[in-house]
Structure of IMD domain-containing protein:
Amino acid sequence: MSRTEEINKMTENVYKGILDQFNPSLKNFVTMGKHYEKALTGVTVAAKGYFDALVKLGELASDSQGSKELGDTLFQMAEVHRQIQVQLEDVLKLFHSEMLTQLEQKLELDIKYLTATLKKYQSERRSQSESIERCQSQLKKLRRKSQGSRHPNKY
């Protein structure tokens, strides 16, 4: 294998390595991020149920004379929990819009770009190889003609 062929093979292997290994790993990362987002959404739904239960317990405790302080404490807990939940929902929206969506779009663009670049490289390489082969063939013909000729300098 010539040095040029080795370099060509290594170049193609770099492109294929990115397309066959790195990008699928990145796709898997995006998929896991979506599963994480879905799990957090489930936690949000469960947390809202918990929040509602805390509020009801606080209302019940506030209605009785002996547990008024307990009711107030439960209301405070519910308010803190609600604030945390709102922050979590905001972070979840940002996670989706700024990370997952952006990463997914960039990944698709990267795959298209790498595929097109690899095809262009292979096409140019093929064209150059064919051109070199043609030139070598013409050179061989000229050498044969010059060897059998009385005027080799002519060729």
Q: What stands out?
A: Residues 68-147 form the longest helix (80 residues).
